[in-house]
Amino acid sequence: MAAAVISSLSKSFGQIPPSAIPPMLDCILTSTAVSSSSLFSSILDDLPDLIESGNRDGKLDSDRRNSIASMIGALCHLLTKANIGREELQSFLWKGFIPLMKMGHDFDQELLNQIADSFFDVVQSIHAWEVLEENLVPFSLRSICLSAGIIQNGDLQGTGLDRSSLFYVSSDLIEKLIENLHVGKDCKLFISGYFPLPLSCHVLSITLDAALRNFQAAPLTGSVSENLSSVKSFTANLLWNLCNVTERLLLQGSESRSCTIGFLLPVIFKAFVSQSSFEISVHREIHIMSRNLFFMRVWKCCRKLFSLGSLERRDAYRILSLYLSYFSCGGTFQNANMSDGAEEFDIRSEKDLWNEIKRGLVDEEGLVRKQSLHILKTLLCMDSGNQHHSDISEKKAQGKHSVPHGVTKRELWAYKEAKSLGVGKICNAVDSGMNSQQQWEAFVLLFEMLEEYGTHLVEAAWNHQITSLLQFSVSHDNFVSAISGSMHQTQSETWAEVFSWLSILWKRGFCHDNPQGIDVLLA
After folding, report:
1. pTM of the full structure
2. How is the chain split into domains, by residue range?
């Protein structure tokens, strides 16, 4: 009876939508003598054959995809039953989840995400984070280190990854796990290898993201202290290892940096948004991994990347832009809670950062100039919503300026263009003096207009702004004072810094794509 039920169920997976699987299984378990554990084992035993057939064909047709989705739904539903334990979850991880992640990465990204969501829902519901800690995480970390060339023989020594946190797995341990699971030959060959680098980073990023969601929701759901402690420890240990491996990957090749920027850094920054520091026990010693400490290390990597080729420089700008997208204005550059004893770090106090921005603003490559300008505006809290020259409606409400007499049609056009760009409001400030923020707005406006091809835009901005910017750049409240702090102690150093920024405008102007734009600067 039981065998017939299981056989019939296996054949029907391709015809049953995943949403109908849980109630159907509940009916089978209620109305027959089939146990949830035997049903789980039978379905799991059929899964490797389906995976291997898909790998042989090199594709997933709709029927096979539906079968896999329904089988995963069935297995995940059965894993939540009372008599299904962590051993079954471990078996599912090695025989189903890991091979399916590889298949999804190769053939079907949507299926990969669907399987991952179902799997992490099960882990969360049965509080089995230690299964991931002992299996999935070390396998994925080992895969990163092997595929990126950080290690050659499975040994993590010297990589900065902590063995005592159980996020270390040797080749012998993997072989032992495979033998205990009694998986097929083809599956053995796959598991004894490793994930490709993008997949490893993706799996670890969604794992940390799932743990973060569970950790943040635990107080709201009233989770018991034991479960909360488990996910908290798992989150902190995984974050610790991802921070360490990120530091190594950023100084590897282009693919390693791309995977780090695309997968690991966003979820790491997300973790530090939710909590500024995490406590980790390493060899029975308490360590603190804080937002500031981590980004100090990332900034050191960026400084090395800036000194290399153009590709490395672009990646360094991407890293800085990503960091600033999570921690920008409103005092969030500094650690919100310094009680953890972490060293305070404000990226704006780094002279090398401003030098790299200046270097990027005059780069021959347009993308680098855009990246540098974006970082500059973010550091100065000059997004599109709070720049003075961007709020055109407000400027119009302040009254009209009379058009000077005796101007040519071209000059009149430039005047009206300047007004539409919001130059008028900045000019209003000239009468009472421009503060440092207004001077920066004038600088940014000039730079952005110099990036335009139309000479009327250059003329509109240049004629109205460069004189006033020069006038107030030698004042005590010049625009460099807003960023330099204690970097420039003497007046001569401050003036040298001011004119190094102003020279950027002339350099860009004399490299203008339109020769008539250069004439505007010389007029």
Report:
1. 0.82
2. 1-126, 401-522
